[in-house]
Amino acid sequence: MLNKSYFLKFSLICLVFLASCGVRKPNTYKDAYAAKIAMAMANLKNKSLYNFITNWTGTPYKLGGFDKKGIDCSGFALQLQKQIYNKQLPRRSVDQSNVIKSKNLDKLKEGDLIFFSFGGKEIDHVGVFLNGNYFVHASTTRGVIVDDLSLPIYQKSLIKAGSIN
Question: Residue 137 catalytic?
Fold first, then answer.
């Protein structure tokens, strides 16, 4: 027969071990980043834009894609501009960049377009400005997502930004 003291100690150790399995270690960077994204979304003036982004967030990236099964950056920008602002855009990001009036980053307004070049000199990516340092785009690795424009990868690749003529 087990010693009562041994049994109590063993039970206590098991209880502490099992309780610790349910505790999530905080990732302060991820938590802070998520809070900033949530704040950018909450500060959108156009609630239809908020709903559009929420509805598309997480849609996977697919080159040439144009629906919820998969979409690319220019298809996403085209759909957003058409459905939210009733504006027409060409299909390719490089062509989209030719129909905007260029602006400095500090003059951007909600819905303006931001163009990048990750592969060289030609524009190969587009996103839609939200507010602060935040924009929404169809990322090749993460799908449709709200992102921070101040991240070095975006600062280094930024080519131009502005509003549709």
Answer: yes
End-to-end CA distance of the chain: 85
Q: What is each CA distance from 99 to 75, 162, 163, in whole angstroms?
A: 15, 9, 8
Q: 44, 80, 125, 127: which one is catalytic?
A: 125
Pick from 102, 122, 123, 98: which is nearest to 112 by CA? 102
| Per annotation, catalytic residue among 73, 77, 78, 100 | 73
Domain range list for the chain: 26-164
Give the pLDDT confidence of 106-140 residue by residue, as tens digits.
999 999 999 999 988 899 999 999 999 999 999 99
> Residue 52: CA atoms inside 13 Å, Cβ hemisphere, count?
22
Question: Would you say residue 92 has pLDDT above 90?
Answer: yes
What φ, ψ does residue 77 adopt, rounded to 5°? -60, -40
- For domain 26-164, say whether CATH 3.90.1720.10 is its number: yes
